Amino acid sequence: MLQQQKTSGDQTRGYNFAFLDENTKREIRRKVLKAVAIPGYQVPFASPELPIARGWGTGGIQITMSIIGPDDVLKVIDQGCDGGVNAVNIRNLLVKTTGVATTFDTTVATIVQTRHRIPEEKMRADQILVLQVPIPEPLRYVEPSEVKTREMHGEMDYSRMWVFLYENIVKWGEITIGARYPSLVNGRYLIDPSPIPRWDVPKLDNADTLYLFGAGREKRIYAVPPHTKVQPLEFDDFKFRVEDFTGHSCTRCGASHTYLNEITGGGNGQKSYACSDSSYCDKLRQARKEGTD
Amino acid sequence: MTLLESGFNKVFDTQRIYRLTLDAMARPGKIVVLPQPELYPPEGITPYTAGVAFTLLDSETSFALLPDSDLSRQYICLNSGSRAEELSRAQFVILDGRDDFPALTDLCRGDLLYPERGATLIVMVDTISEQGEGLRLTLRGPGVDGVRTLALKGLCPANMHCVQELNREFPLGVDLILTDQKGALAALPRSCAVELNVEVDC
Amino acid sequence: MGYVAVSGGSEAILKAEELVAYFRLKGDSAPLEVSQIKEQQRLAVDKVMGEGALYAPTIAALALKQAEGDNIEASFIVRAYRATQPRRYVSLPADTGEMKIIRRISGAFQDIPGGQILGPTRDYTQRLVNFSLLHEDQDSVRNFLTGLDVQMSAQLPDTFPKVVELLRREGLLVEPSDAGGGLCDITRESISFPCRRSAKLQSLARGETGAMMALAYSSIRGYGDIHPYLGELRVGTVPLRINHPGSSEPVYVDRILVTEAEIIARYDEGDKSGKPQLTLGYGLCFGHNELKAISMGILDRTLLSRSPHKAPAEDEEFVLYHIDGIESSGFVAHWKLPHYVTFQSTLDRLRRTRRLKEDEDAPAAEDKR
After folding, report:
1. Burial B94-128 (b: 16+ CB within 10 A, else e)
2. Average pLDDT of B13-40?
3. CATH code, B12-127+154-192
4. Which of A31, A38, A69 sits opposite B190 (nearest CB)?
5. Which residues in C lie closer than 8 A to residue A89 (C-beta atoms)?
């Protein structure tokens, strides 16, 4: 479903198109090009303040604001859901300042801005996924200093991350990192793919779509171009593993091939599961209903 | 004749040019077509090149021109706010691809800590096509599904050799945006492995 | 269920906004006038200007009203507003020697040229609740003001010499080794390390008072090597001037109220072959905010440390990355956002690890039987 919202004089009075001034947009545009040219490398950018709090998506928003045009169709999701309060708030700001059409349908959107999920439906070459990133630095697990992590990336010295993972396995028999799984891009730069679940990491590898990552508070932009190798770190004898939903399926649509949210509801504390990708779930549910009619 | 442009829309025209440029940079060898901008640059700069320049340059950037000319420099400065800089420090270099510019070896490639400081070249050539006349490039790497070919008429091979040399030690290097006389645009980020196939003298 | 929240999300936000306004207005009291906040809560306004990094008293007062007195929220509003303002000029360096003083003291010296001017300070009052303020009205205010004969400008000289000049003249003061490096704008480029001096001072000048105070406190309590003295603290207005293409002379814009603190401490990290010296830690912020200026001066000094084992207040990255109130409050608060997808992933790891542990322990349990 497409909701057309034409720019009215009232709606955009007093705002630049897409809120940001052109200087700010241009800086981000330049930095995004460099990020694409050096896949996985975190490009510093000025990241001036927005009326939305730091840590609440300003990086992703700034990228979207810098690339969006009046003919784009925008989808905004949080945890996979279009209706989450944060997604609603961000979508409102973007629509208020651009008048663009919006959609909940991943296949119809030209720009999808997301927090913590990659949509289940495979994205195409004519689409861009903009991811909101809280901590862009994968090496923060092992090193708090920006000066040191910059050097480590420069020299491609990721030994301490390997040691960290190895020590996890020795101690727990399992790697502890859930979301934010460190992955090597183009065989060169280690990235934090943002807090997407491990489920979504394989979608980055050799994709058709362009992935842009924005960390507003930390002031970094990075990118994974299409058809680029993305390898989550693993050992020969300890392979990368996605979340395990064996035996579970979505109570709304019946899917067992999607990332599921655990829902503990009702007085009896019964656990059930539902698709995290709400609009995909709606489609499957609709299809199931039509199938049985 | 005034150098100051007034027809070009700095908000919407630049956004459209940018999305096409981004698409090209993300998919090396993909040829996109820029809409003809309402720009009337002096001899030596095409309207399409000017459009790309005004999309990316402003008072926070520096540029150099090869070949240099007072008029072209004034035109770029006046309409973008960008300042002219010597070649080795310029963030953007606007280049006539037909001539041989050995000075390209001086371009900034960035460093291991800040590779993004490597320059961006906006290269003007005669024609960009997939299989047509001119210098033949075979492309592999991020953004390329398998292999891609690009044919560039009006690009001196020596310039391309220079660029390959500058890009020999990834992540250091420079990134190219190519524009032709009819508005076709393609991009070669430093991540792209470029093989030259046809040798001609310029 | 959650998915009906597609429209529920929008509704919830609108209702929340309504409730915010309701909670602010539901009392019986008359709506606050922005002028009241500006005039009678000037220290809150000054704090918000300093942390919002925008000298705009009316906007700051309005933000405080909008934020119901939440200082960090108000600073955030000011900061976001600042980001929308066009940057037309950069002022010429302001000389605080030109300051029209309202307060000027030194801790390092008993007597200073021009004298110690206490000005408006609560430093020497006893912190007893003043219940008479419950009954303040326009009449009592008027009586007080007409009874009081305040002619500050008539009594004080126009300018006062800088105390640190005395030390400079004696050759005791060394300039910070990181002076220079040119002027950068940290809102136009993100900071990198080692930090240029102008970037460091800008970050500190817009820092959150409490964070800076805690770090400065840690240093003077012993997590660090410096023993500071307050060379001079001055509060007053300084003139701002710009170069303008329409004039051959600098153009005067206005005066702004600032607080300046110059911290003096012994400097032992210099060349050991020379004589020991003192160095300056410099603090400057918008409005009247002494705790911040002093903390800033202390931190400017502690960040000069070249010790291989840095205390937190001596670690440039640690200090400069964690004192911005807008960034820190945003990230601390962001845990309120849904994280159930990532938490699901954590649960997955945890459950598997526990299963592995159970499988490990199971044979041992068998043996026990």
Report:
1. bbbbeeebeebebbbbbeeeebbebbbbbbbbebb
2. 97
3. 3.40.50.11310
4. A38
5. 13
